[in-house]
Amino acid sequence: MDASTLSSSRNPSLCESQLEYALLCEMLRQGLRPVQQKYIAGYRADFAFPAEKIVVEADGKYWHCNNRKKYWDAFRDNRMKRLGWTVLRFWDDNIVNKTERCVDIVKRNVERRKAWQVMA
């Protein structure tokens, strides 16, 4: 994906890390258009698909590996889940080494939610 495609479709400056940027680029390459830095229930998600109620988080070990942060992540995930959101978290190793696979999982969840909405 070239820079003009990225800048015209989403703002890379909203990415707070290289991990988020890598996920964003791959999501755009695969035709997904997430909302960046979306507030949900008072918490900011890295990416969201509001119509499908899907949150995507890019977790680096530096910010998310201690017990306090793991507890906080679980607390906010549970709050969003109670509101009907699906929360997908991807660790830095997977984002760096298996970016396409991570986004395949996101895409599959988005498509599944869209199909559920049609049936409802």
Features:
120 residues, alpha+beta, Endonuclease, Chain A, 4-stranded mixed sheet, 6 helices, 4 strands, 55% helix, globular, disordered N terminus
Set down the secondary structure blueprint.
Layout: H1 3-9, H2 18-29, E1 35-40, E2 43-49, E3 54-59, H3 61-64, H4 67-82, E4 86-91, H5 92-97, H6 99-119
Parallel strand pairs: 3-4
Antiparallel strand pairs: 1-2, 2-3
Q: Please, could you describe this protein's structure?
A:
The structure is a single chain. The chain is α+β, with helices and mostly antiparallel strands and 120 residues long. The protein has one domain: VSR Endonuclease (Endonuclease, Chain A). Helices cover 55% and strands 21% of the residues. It is globular, with a radius of gyration of 14 Å.
Summary, kept brief:
By secondary structure, the protein is of the alpha+beta class.
Rg estimate, integer Å: 14 Å
Distance between the termini: 35 Å
The portion of residues assigned to helices is 55-70%
Number of domains: 1
Tell me the β content. Answer: 15-25%
Strand segment count: 4
Any low-confidence stretches, pLDDT <50, length ≥5? 1-9
Largest sheet entry: 4 strands, mixed
CATH class: Alpha Beta
Neighbour order of strands in the largest sheet: 1-2-3-4
Give me the strand/helix succession.
HHEEEHHEHH
Mean pLDDT: 86
Number of helices: 6
CATH architectural category: 3-Layer(aba) Sandwich
